[in-house]
Amino acid sequence: MEEIRLTFVNVGYGEAMVLECPDPAFPGGTFVMVIDGGSAEPEEYQDSNTGRLPLAEYLARQGPDHIDVMVSTHIHEDHLCGLLPVAEQLPPGAFWQTLPEDFDEAMRQLEVPAEGLSISRRKFLHALNDYHLLRRRLREQGCPVRTLTAGTVLQPCGGLTVRVLGPSPIRVRQLEKLCRELYQEMDEAAFWRRLDQLDAAMNNYSLILLLEYCGTRIMLPGDTNCMGYGSLTEEDLRADLFKVGHHGQRDGISRPQIQRIAPRAVVCCASSDRRYNSAEPGILRMIADSGAELYFSDCPPGPDGTTPPPHQALTFSIGAGGAVQGAYLPPLGT
């Protein structure tokens, strides 16, 4: 069986992944899944010294030329907003998410004041608005939408199994309730309280995906932090390649959890400036102590003080016999 490729695009502070799996049933003989899209804010890409670039630009320059499945793990600006320009460029064949298929019909565009907002409120409002626009665009394109909850098992292409470990159906209903209450709130002060509460809670409503190919397991938990794995068994948690949650901030994972996961390789999607205390040194040392090889989507300093070379993407080749090979793709023009 051929190899699959999992690419972490260097979108700075954010996450954007592209999975390519050989299957003759799909265009060009390759099934393509995009998981999250990084930020859409131009400021995120002004300093490109480390190789960062928007996902839409990466796809336009490096391919692939189609998307079979687009996945949104949760609604935060650094994960979702980059999906909107990608959907306009390459309409996906299907869209996977946590909210009900028709939830966007209960949404409206929220006003984003020009000034007086905290950064977190501004970013979250933009994320909610871009989610609304994305769903509207996908509906216009005739793209089918699927709500994923824990227990769902999918085989989207030959040799690849996708297991959904979270959130649970109960958690999905909780998320829908919180979102509906936000959009129904008419009192201004109460609206901002609800917005902040939803923003703070959103990480642990992330999709937790476990991908398996040729016996190799890959865990992609979105922004799930150490408090979000409570219902998972030791067998659920085991993974050969693990993308640490919440950008490697202090709450991203605990020592007992990383020991249960027992990964051979770990990816930390933190920006080179370690914004918001991402790529937290204690977390990085804990991962290194576990024996896992540590990789970064951007270029923050590692536990030994060294940094990865500038790169536009980090690509893993995953094949038979449990092979997991990671490599940094040099920046454009080098």
Sketch the topology as an H/E string, one letter per element.
EEEHEHHEHEEEHHEEHEHEHEEE
Class inferred from helices and paired strands? alpha/beta
For the biggest β-sheet, the strand order reads 6-5-4-3-2-1-14-15
The tally of domains stands at: 1
Q: Whole-number radius of gyration?
A: 19 Å
The coarse overall form would be globular
In terms of DSSP E residues, the strand content is 15-25%
What's the CATH C level? Alpha Beta
Low-confidence blocks of residues? none
CATH-assigned fold name: Metallo-beta-lactamase, Chain A
Largest sheet: 8 strands, mixed
Total helical elements: 9
CATH arch. level architecture: 4-Layer Sandwich
Number of strand segments = 15
Distance between the termini: 33 Å
Q: How much helix, percentage-wise, in residues? A: 25-40%
Within CATH, the superfamily carries the name Ribonuclease Z/Hydroxyacylglutathione hydrolase-like
Q: Mean pLDDT, rounded to whole units?
A: 94
